[in-house]
Write a structure and sequence with these properties.
Blueprint (H helix, E strand, L loop, with lengths): L28 E2 L7 H8 L4 E7 L2 E6 L4 H10 L4 E10 H4 L1 E9 L10 E9 L4 E2 L8 H12 L3 E2 L33 H6 L5 H4 L64
Parallel strand pairs: 3-6, 7-8
Antiparallel strand pairs: 1-2, 2-3, 4-5, 5-6
EC number: 7.1.1.-
Catalytic activity: a quinone + NADH + 5 H(+)(in) = a quinol + NAD(+) + 4 H(+)(out)
Function: NDH-1 shuttles electrons from NADH, via FMN and iron-sulfur (Fe-S) centers, to quinones in the respiratory chain.
């Protein structure tokens, strides 16, 4: 069967005849009470106020207030939604001066086959903190640290709220839509400016902040396998034979003579 051929005339000009600002329609949203998630909404609405709810692509979404977040997640965990698979935020500061936090929950119970996945959302204002849920879901510990590192959102009562991806002295939060695409141009001078001063930039040079960078001439922090030298010594191209020996055990490797090899014709 021959694949259907598409007209190729004026392909380069096609972009000029399409709507650049076209927005695809949203996927259909079904009221939660008309789906299998109705039992979840009934149990949740008895304890907290649900601002909005719907089911989209087989997944329920519940909007709650910030003050009801902990209680909502406690109830859902008691309903056997005991896996927090994802937690992050969306920057809507330019739209309504808010962040939208979402918590993706999953249940692997066979009885939840028709309603396995749901999402809890809440909105907070800029510079507003939110309670940590790490006491309910341990997986939230690192997710909240990443959210703080990327968006600057602070989580109350978090056991160790520090940056997790960026250096501790990094300025700004990279996933904010207001963050410059070229990044922080001063990142290469943080410690130089702090220790020596800006006037020493040309003398000291920019910092190397790439954690994956390997300096072949640095024998203090790196070792060249087969060409080892004492710590801090000048690198050498002298090749050393690499052998391995278990401590306090008979030798497991030794150099066998190759001048008179023996060929085995069968296994012994």
């Amino acid at each position: 069967m021959i694949r259907k051929q598409q007209p190729k005339k004026d392909v380069q000009k096609k972009v000029y005849h399409t709507d650049t600002f076209y927005q695809p329609p949203l996927t259909p949203r079904t009221p939660t009470m008309q789906t299998a998630f109705c039992v979840v909404e009934e149990a949740l609405s008895q304890e907290v106020e649900i601002l909005k709810s719907y089911v989209e692509i087989g997944q329920a979404v519940f909007y709650v207030k910030k003050d009801s977040l902990l209680k909502s997640l406690e109830i859902l965990k008691s309903l056997q939604y005991d896996i927090l698979s994802e937690m992050s935020a969306i920057d809507n500061l330019a739209i309504d001066d808010s962040f939208e936090l979402f918590y993706q929950l999953t249940s692997h119970q066979q009885s939840h086959k028709a309603r396995r996945r749901l999402r809890v959302k809440c909105r907070i204002r800029d510079n507003e903190s939110v309670p940590s849920v790490s006491s309910i879901f341990s997986a939230a510990n690192w997710s909240e640290r990443e959210c703080y590192d990327m968006f600057g959102i602070k989580f109350e009562n978090h056991p160790f709220l520090k940056r997790i991806l960026m250096p501790i002295d990094w300025v700004g939060f990279p996933l904010l839509k207001s963050y410059p695409l070229k990044g922080d141009e001063f990142a290469s001078w943080y410690e130089v400016d702090k220790i020596f001063g800006r006037e020493y930039r040309d003398i000291v040079g920019p910092e190397q902040r790439d954690s994956a960078r390997v300096d072949r001439d640095d024998s203090i922090n790196f070792a060249r396998i087969g060409k080892e030298v004492p710590k801090g010594a000048e690198p050498s191209d002298c090749i050393h034979e690499v052998t391995y020996q278990e401590k306090d055990k008979p030798p497991i490797l030794k150099k066998f003579p190759t001048s008179n090899p023996k060929i085995l014709d069968k296994r012994t």
